[in-house]
Amino acid sequence: MRVTISRKAHFNAAHRLYRKDWTFEKNDAVFGKCNNPNFHGHNYGLTVSVTGKIDPETGFVLDVKVLADIIRQEVEVPFDHKNLNLDVPEFQDLNPTAENIAVVIWNKIRKRIQSDFDLEVVLNETDRNFVTYKGE
């Protein structure tokens, strides 16, 4: 029997969507107001879901406190109230789109979750825009 547990979290961060190898005009045409050289921010919502078999001893798939600690250490501490482009090493050469942020978060958490568990990350950039990543 496989069951999914989920934990919600949030973080606030600034970013700018642009490519260093493009002109300002091309960045502006592709990314619009998200290319603002002074950056802009979001109140990101995050849902992390882990699917696996229930441990017969504990009754848990994974202790939700353990999942909360992983999210805090891997996402909230390094991303919250940061400029993703300037302060987060993963985005030094990676455009911090919602899609790329979700993949980075998934990779960071995946290292901390048992390999026989499935992992899904849902990142809400706004109330209406979100991305889901389940791995390759």
Present the secondary structure layout:
Blueprint: E1 2-15, H1 24-31, E2 40-53, H2 64-79, E3 82-83, H3 84-87, H4 98-110, E4 118-124, E5 130-133
Parallel strand pairs: 1-3
Antiparallel strand pairs: 1-2, 2-4, 4-5
Written description of the protein model:
With 136 residues, the protein is an alpha+beta fold. The protein has one domain: 6-pyruvoyl tetrahydropterin synthase/QueD (Tetrahydropterin Synthase, Chain A, 2-Layer Sandwich), CATH 3.30.479. It is 30% helix and 30% strand. The chain is built from four helices and five strands; from the N terminus they run E-H-E-H-E-H-H-E-E. Strands 3-1-2-4-5 form a five-stranded mixed beta sheet. Strand 4 and strand 5 form a beta hairpin. The longest helix is centred in the middle third of the chain and has 16 residues. The two termini are 23 Å apart. The relative contact order is 0.21. The mean pLDDT is 97. Its EC number is 4.-.-.-. Pathway: Purine metabolism; 7-cyano-7-deazaguanine biosynthesis. It catalyses: 7,8-dihydroneopterin 3'-triphosphate + H2O = 6-carboxy-5,6,7,8-tetrahydropterin + triphosphate + acetaldehyde + 2 H(+). InterPro entries: 6-PTP_synth/QueD (IPR007115), 6-PTP_synth/QueD_sf (IPR038418). This is 6-carboxy-5,6,7,8-tetrahydropterin synthase.
Strand content: 25-35%
- Weakly predicted, low-confidence segments: none
Provide the CATH top-level class: Alpha Beta
The whole-angstrom Rg is 17 Å
Number of domains: 1
CATH superfamily: 6-pyruvoyl tetrahydropterin synthase/QueD
Q: What can be said about the biggest beta sheet?
A: 5 strands, mixed
Helix content: 25-40%
Measure the end-to-end span: 23 Å
Indicate the overall shape.
Answer: elongated
What's the mean pLDDT score?
A: 97
CATH topology: Tetrahydropterin Synthase, Chain A
Task: Order the strands across the largest sheet as they lie in space.
Answer: 3-1-2-4-5
Structural class: alpha+beta
Write the CATH architecture name: 2-Layer Sandwich
How many beta-strand elements? 5
Give, in order, the helices and strands: EHEHEHHEE
Number of helices: 4
